[in-house]
Amino acid sequence: MKKILTIIFTIIFFTSCKKDFLNVAPGDRLSNTTFWRNADDAVQATTGVYSSWSSSHIYQQYFADDWSDDAIPSGFWQGFYYFTWGKGNISPSNGDISGYWSALYSVIRTSNVFLANVDKCVMDDNLKARLKGEVQFVRAYEYYLLYNNWGEVPLVDKPLSPGEVNIGRGASGSTVAFILADLNAAIPNLPTVASQAGRITKGAALTLKARILLATGQYAEAAATAKMVMDQGNYELLRTTAGDGYKQLTNTKQANNKEEILAWQFDGSNVNNDFISNVNGLSGSLVSPTKALVDAYDGYNKTTDMVVPVNETTTTSRFANRDPRLDFTVGHTGSVVKGITLNSESGELAAHATGYGVIKFITNEVINNTPKYSTDYMLMRYAEVLLIYAEAKIEAGQIDQSVINAINDVRSRAYGTAPTDITHYPEVILGTQAALRNIVRNERRVELAFEGLRWFDIKRWGIAAGTNGTMNGTVLGAYLSSGTYKVAGARQMDNPNRDYLRPIPQDQINLMGKNLLPQNPGYN
Q: pLDDT at position 282, please?
């Protein structure tokens, strides 16, 4: 989260983490006589949870779309598991897989220690309930990531002694039930408006709940939960009189606006502290957008108000008359960033596997001749809530005008106009369930690109793996002056029974035993 108070307590109490993810050594605990006394202690402990949460696996959030059909890593980074897993040959002994698992459980452990001790503090009951709610959200968020990556996992809800570490994988449905229980306990105690920028709110908890319900096919419940966020009335899409709301949201320092539900926030005073410009933008090549993503942005003729085929004649014509979000998301031949005209075959973009770079969340601000890249990294925003609502209603067979309104609210903002101004953007109209399903899925793809959600989407839709899977086959990039597309590599996700889950880390199986922690199907 925001660089709120990183204190000695956090370092002493929360950063001790052994390879054994369930181990809690006695030395990690602070005496009741020195801590857990009052509100100050409780607030400091909550800060420790926030710090642990954001710092323990922040890289994973930035690189998440390398797990999807929207991006692929380049060069040196292709040795990392973002690429290896996509090739269908990742090993359970992969150190990065183990590190990710351990990082998530480290935050869960931190949360459990807080929840087990905060009642000892003599303090205002309302404040205590709110802090508990924030930490319950964090724990639920980590289990949400574990579930989406590995399926059912060991469920730990308290600090463990050395004799309690042998906990097996949960029964079918237990991980989702655990997540929903944490969120349902947290929601009544969380504020509608954050007490401090970057703090967790009721809207954030409801949004995460809606995500889980959508992912598990509980469509009517997901729509109802998203509608609760919509009905709060304190969120809206960022729109500007100049019609550049999407650009302002993603390419300028528009922190804490009404669209932002939850974000990790960065201090723009220190460029070196910003991850986005270093590894997810033009100066890094870890995340290279694919041709498949670029092709998802519609062609649209503003003069005729018609969706039109893309002119693929030249390296630059293919970017004319496109959904405006393309130019705010993907750096390509003809893009102008910080006064530099980019080219997929030279300069910064040539280092990318696809010849495309990510420019979303990179600002054009300059301080003392130094580019200022820092923007908040969105974990949740209102556009996603609208699209969850629309998709859930479509899948539930509850198609009505509210579905169309939600999609058009998002789409019209992208084109810099109002939803009612239907002659200046490709508005959606009522149609069949199949047609609207395709529309909302593509709308999610282009609206939320590089916000860490694409893999979860194609997984729950079941379109990633298999003979015709979007993650199986040659990965293409930019169109080159030679008349060919840049080949960025290949993926082999041809086994749906294996490829929708990561392998359980072998070191954890060795620790727990294969009877308690059996491997996911298809991995040796």
A: 67
Q: What is the reported pLDDT for 31?
A: 54
Helix (H) or strand (E) holding 383: helix 382-395
Do 180 and 248 touch, CB atoms closer than 8 A? Answer: no
One domain for residues 102 and 115: yes
Helix, strand, coil percent values for the chain (each to nearest 5): 45, 10, 45
| Nearest-angstrom CA–CA distance, 280 and 250 | 14
Provide the strand spans (E) within 251-376: 260-264, 288-289, 299-301, 306-308, 330-331, 336-337, 340-341, 357-358, 365-367, 370-372
Name the amino acid, one letter, at 77. W
The residue ranges of the chain whose pLDDT is under 70 are 1-33, 56-59, 76, 82, 251-255, 265-285, 363-376
Which residue is listed with tokens 């039109």?
A: 308
What's the confidence (pLDDT) of residue 334?
93
Domain boundary among the residues 396, 424, 452 is at 452
| Domain residue limits at 244 | 196-265+382-452
The two structure tokens encoding residue 131: 């802090």
Cα atoms in the 13 Å half-sphere on the side-chain side of 194: 20
CA distance 380 to 208: 8
Report d(CA 481, CA 478) in Å as an integer.
Answer: 10
One-letter amino acid at 345 equals E
CA distance 315 to 334: 9
Number of domains into which the chain is organized? 3
Spatial distance between the Cα atoms of 421 and 440, rounded to a whole number of angstroms: 20
Rg of the chain on CA atoms, in Å? 23
Query: What pLDDT shows up at residue 115?
Result: 97
What pTM was estimated for this model as a whole? 0.91
Query: Angle 125-150/454-461 helices, nearest 10 degrees?
Result: 60
